Amino acid sequence: MSKPDLILLHAPANLDFREKPIIYGPISDVIPSTPIFEMYPIGFVSIAGHLEQNGFETRIINIASRMLKDPAFNVVRFVARLDAAAFGIDLHWLPHVSGALDLARTLKRSHPTTPIIFGGLSATYFHQELIDYPFVDFVVRGDSTETVILQLMQKLRDGGLVGDIPNLTWKDSHQTPHFNALTNVPADLDGINLDYSYAVRSVLKYKDLAGLLPFKNFADYPITMSLSCRGCTMDCVTCGGSQYAYRNICNRDKPAFRTPELVVEDILSAQRFFQGPVFVIGDPYQESPEYASRLLWSLRKAKVKNPLVVEFFLPPPPDFFPRIAGAVPSYNIQLSAESHDEEVRRAFGKGYANKPLENTIKNALEHGCQRFDLFFMTGLGKQTYASVLDTARYCIALMKEFRSFARLHPMISPLAPFIDPGSKVYENPQRYGYKLYCRDLEEHARALHAPSWKYMMSYETEWMNRDEVVESTYEAALMLNQGKKELGLIPRREAEAIEFQCKEALDLIHLVDKAVAQHGIDFKREDILPVATGVRHLHSSTLCAKRELEWPARSIIKSAPRILWSLLPWRRR
After folding, report:
1. Dihedrals φ, ψ of 87, to 5°?
2. 483 and 402 within one domain
3. In the chain, N or C: fewer CB atoms in 10 Å?
4. Predicted confidence (pLDDT) at residue 229 exceeds the cutoff of 80
5. Are 271 and 159 found together in one domain?
6. Is residue 573 domain-resident?
7. Alpha carbon distance 453, 60 (integer Å)
8. What percent of the chain has pLDDT over 90?
9. Total count of domains within the chain
10. Is residue 192 part of a domain?
């Protein structure tokens, strides 16, 4: 087995999550990963592929996923056996900041002279705080770090100085921090490549399927991604990926796009190996209607076979749906409406009314959309407890209206656990009616060790405190679950299981509340150890079944013939 030059590692939310009873609640119910946030960013694949193309052996290890899959997996012993010229740790979103810091600390104890590199949007925002840690040697800043990391690896190999590498935060031999200018902001992403053959070759090279899996259940549900852009045209007020945040964090004034033809190449690369849905990241209408048309034409020309998942930030033109129906054999839609209340939606940063939303659902379902995922949130500005329940009623009304299709899937989840750094709310909370409890890395890291997700939450609003956000979330979810059961949209037994989980989670949260009231937030965890078993089985989902999020897919085992066949040309080389 060859020694990699760079090992990219993804940490869980907490490195001790298997020992410490925490009620994580529904903070990850509407994403593929668990509340341990074991899903590493797609940038791992593009970075690894770029380095490999330029002669640097790169390995991805998902520490979080391995910990979830194997209760006996020992992180300290495992990382002590690793050998590389450098280690990279992602800190893209904050929900795994505690685990990322602890993993870096553990690595440095075993490998005191090996450089540790951080990267990601949150790492970029907090780069000055990060570089002060004795176990952090470099922070690569910005949204597109493939060339930056390549330059850094070349300097580390050749012994060169790093003062001229753009976007780099670093320490000299006296531990003095330096902040190179953030000037590597590519205008387009045509140089970015998502080559899924890299992942398959890596499994064979390092004999480590478990370490490469993007999230816990990927082997059974291999959903892949295609990257259309970095940056955003929207200004959602709590989002760290908004136009405002990208301008302030990454020095990016407008999104950088990849050509539609390259987006389709990603999809073809994925379907060579996996028989599952491919998620196209980024609303295709962000760039222009012409961009969306080119994408549809390229999809049709390429004869894409895998199901596509297309996300929209705003209701698209009605002619999109008959066109995509003629371009691909199967497609699904995701759209986040945030609230049924148009005033709440406007305050969040999305100005469209309900009628265009409802027309979009109708058009999509009438033109063959296999499922339409419609997301709503709790914890928004100008949103009251009563408004949250009205959102649940609105969802039930939509399901009744489109009952004959049985393909509309509305979901409600909390804006949790944190407000994204760099967002408008994070930078000016009072202006938007928010109160923030966490401001720096350490405060966010400590919050992730709170006994329940209510105490993890970094905010409350003028309209709802944290108790009300939690209670309204579960009450709305129970209403929505009951509506789905009565309409026959989910099996009765499944609906009853979700109802039991919600009520059990609330009982556990109330039990923690009593302990906090009596002994404070730092009460001895032994006081609630009897509920630890109950807590752990709530790690996967609470408000809905993970199955509700899934599109048809074939497991990796069933795709094995396709994977092996696709590798034959590589083997001949």
Report:
1. -120, 140
2. yes
3. C
4. yes
5. no
6. no
7. 29
8. 73
9. 2
10. no
**Weakest-pLDDT range from 324-328, 425-429, 556-560:** 556-560
pLDDT tens column, 79-101: 999 999 999 999 999 999 999 99
When comparing pLDDT for 526 and 10, which is higher?
A: 10
Bridge partners of 140, per DSSP, are: 119, 168
Q: The CATH number of the domain where 508 resides is what?
A: 3.20.20
Residues 438-459 have a mean pLDDT of 95
| Residues 231, 130 share a domain | no
Q: Are residues 229 and 152 located together in one domain of the fold?
A: no
For residue 478, count CB atoms less than 10 angstroms from its CB and return exposed for 0-12, middle for 13-18, buried for 19 or more: middle
Same domain, residue pair 295 and 408: yes
3-state SS, one letter per residue, for 490-523: CCHHHHHHHHHHHHHHHHHHHHHHHHHHHHCCCC
Count Cβ atoms within 10 A of the Cβ of residue 352 and give its class: 0-12 exposed, 13-18 middle, 19 or more buried.
middle
Over 90: is that where the pLDDT of 559 sits? no
- Whether residue 550 is predicted with pLDDT greater than 90 in this model: the reply is no
Flag whether 435 is in a domain: yes
What number of other Cβ atoms are within 10 A of residue 404's Cβ? Answer: 7
Beta strand spans in 246-353 (E): 256-257, 278-281, 308-312, 331-338
* Three-state DSSP class for residue 461: strand
Distance (Å, rounded) from C-alpha 517 to C-alpha 186? 52
For residues 274 and 222, is the Cβ–Cβ distance under 8 A?
Answer: yes
Distance (Å, whole) CA 178 – CA 138: 10
* 229 and 174 within one domain: no
Q: Which domain holds residue 88?
A: 6-179
Provide the strand spans (E) within 217-343. Answer: 224-227, 229-230, 256-257, 278-281, 308-312, 331-338
Does some domain include residue 557?
Answer: no
| Arithmetic mean of pLDDT over the chain | 90
Instruction: Please name the residue that has the structure tokens 């020694």.
Output: 3
CA neighbours closer than 13 Å in the CB half-sphere of residue 352: 18
**Domain at 25, CATH number:** 3.40.50.2300
C-alpha gyration radius of the chain: 23
Say yes or no to pLDDT of 526 above 90.
Answer: no
Q: Which residues pair with 58 in a beta bridge?
A: 6
Q: Are 163 and 292 in a shared domain?
A: no
For 35-54, write each residue's pLDDT tens digit: 889 999 999 999 999 999 99
pLDDT tens for residues 133-148?
A: 999 999 999 999 999 9
Identify whether residues 175 and 231 lie together within a single domain. no
Strand partners, 88: 8, 117
Compute, in degrees rounded to 10, the torsion defined by CA atoms 457, 460, 465, 466: 0
| Position 571 pLDDT exceeds 50 | no
